[in-house]
Design brief:
The complex is a heterodimer of chains A (321) and B (268).
Chain A (H helix, E strand, L loop, with lengths): L5 E12 L2 E12 L3 E5 L6 H8 L7 E6 L2 E2 L4 H5 L2 E4 L11 H11 L4 H14 L15 H13 L5 E5 L7 H16 L3 E6 L2 H7 L2 E6 L2 E7 H8 L2 E7 L5 H8 L5 E3 L4 E6 L3 H13 L4 E7 L3 H9 L13
Parallel strand pairs in A: 3-8, 3-9, 6-7, 7-8
Antiparallel strand pairs in A: 1-2, 1-4, 4-5, 9-10, 11-13, 11-14, 12-13
Chain B lengths: L12 H22 L1 H22 L10 H18 L1 H11 L2 H6 L7 H27 L8 H28 L3 H17 L12 H9 L1 H14 L6 H26 L5
Classes of the chains: A alpha/beta (321), B mainly alpha (268).
Amino acid sequence: MTDGNDAIVIKKLIKSFKKLKVLDGIDLSVKRGTMLALLGPNGAGKTTIVRILSTLLKPDGGEVLVNGFDVRREPKKVRSFIGLTGQYTAVDELLSGRENLVMMGRLYHLAKEESKKRADELLYQFDLTEAADRSVKTYSGGMRRRLDLAASLIASPPVIFLDEPTLGLDPRSRLAMWSIIEKLLEEGVTILLTTQYLEEADRLADRIAVLDKGKIIAEGTASELKADVGTERVEVVIERPEDFDRAVKIMERDGMKSDREERSIDVSTNGSVFAVKQILDALHDAKIEIDTMSVHKPTLDDVFLRLTGREASMKGEEKNK
Amino acid sequence: MKQTVNPYQKHSSIYHATSDTGVLVVRSLKHIFKNMDQLLGLTIQPVMFMLLFGYVFGGAINTGGINYINFLVAGILVQMSAFGATTTALSIAADLRRGIIDRFKSLPMTSSAVMTGHVTADLVRNIISSGVLIVVAIFMGFRPSASLLEWLYILGILILFTLAFSWVSAIMGLLAGSVEAVQWMTFFVVFPLTFASAAFVPTETMPGWLQVFAQNQPVTHVIESIRALMIGTPIGSHGWLAIIWSIGLIAISIPIAAYLFRARQPLQ
């Protein structure tokens, strides 16, 4: 153990699948009671890190400590301190929600009564009491995710790994999941979360690490990262194609995205109304007419464009949002 | 900070291994009754086979003076057990696909208990289906001569045989990449073993090369020994060979399954 305050320590972590280098020297640490978000597109290596942390995969090189225990030398000790919520909702479809939770409690070696008590608490906390005795087959996607998370919390582990916990959820279920995760943080749990959504990392995490092709390309607090990308982005679509080049010149700045075919220009701002007005005034003064204008939050694409000069979605098969 | 439960000092590791296995046996047993379609399918199919062979083909099959239905029941029973035992492969493949095995591996438990659970469920399912099958057979004119003790021997052989096939099917479940692959893999193993056997016809009518296989493979030994116990035909060496084959398969397949289970990488 290098630092008693770190619940997770990763040093020079290397992992390859056959010839493909998936993790190429990862260094990370997560302070006890805080959340680190691993942000990156599909294939960046996020899930591989989670699987190594949760002892499902062995690292090829480097050092990985969870709660002070080495994942390679003492995997059993590590398993007793962690809760894992993977990308799959790994719950038993044929059993009821309650049966799933009690089973998980027993497998964490809680006593039967303790398992039942914790199951009741979690069902209530996750708004599943009504559906508790129905088979999971009948649950909605959001309910399954909540049950899946509840299952990993049954023994109140101090360290939790959440691998894309809101992937594929509708906005309402996503918000419900976020508030559950926020409560966990209030209780002092250490969380490592992976996500493709900058918004999610920004809202929940104390620190964000951006992962690209098995390397950490940026790490910092959400505000440090956003200082780079801007808090908000303004997108204008120019009315006449012949004005496009002039408009690009006027709006030119770091992190600008433009699309000639769509006649759209997308730039970052500090989020103030004044910044938007400045852009509109400048275009107006140049007699450039605007078709539409919209303000939106920066996405993973914007972070990537800023950090690597290319968009995240170019390598992931699934476009970010 | 919330109370952190650290339950690992309370009991010995043998206690925990037993308790983990118990929890997962209960899980798999619950599956039997929460998945009635599967239980019905596994019971109705052999009944249909018995009706088909008993009433449609049976008249044309010469079993050397033995009433055909009396000849047939042992074969159908063993074929049913063999197919029933492949449920372990399907269950394991489904658990792998849903990420349930990954999750179990991340827990401080004896993760291979999940296989013991599925194997036990096969056993219970097969015993239920066997009961139904024998009742239907009696309605079709099946008249066994077995004493109570002989019935217990039959039960013992069926249990050993089911365990053997279930553990072999656990290996197939771990090797297959998908539930669909499990279906054809188990079919290609179980189908020839049960049809190229003494299940439906005496092996003497088969071509020479097939006779060699059919008379010496484990399923035939199991069928012949159960048939002998049921209706009093000579058991010969079939009884011992059935037991030796079954125990041998169990002894070999458990460590292989355990190794594959640990080595099995998470689904990508």
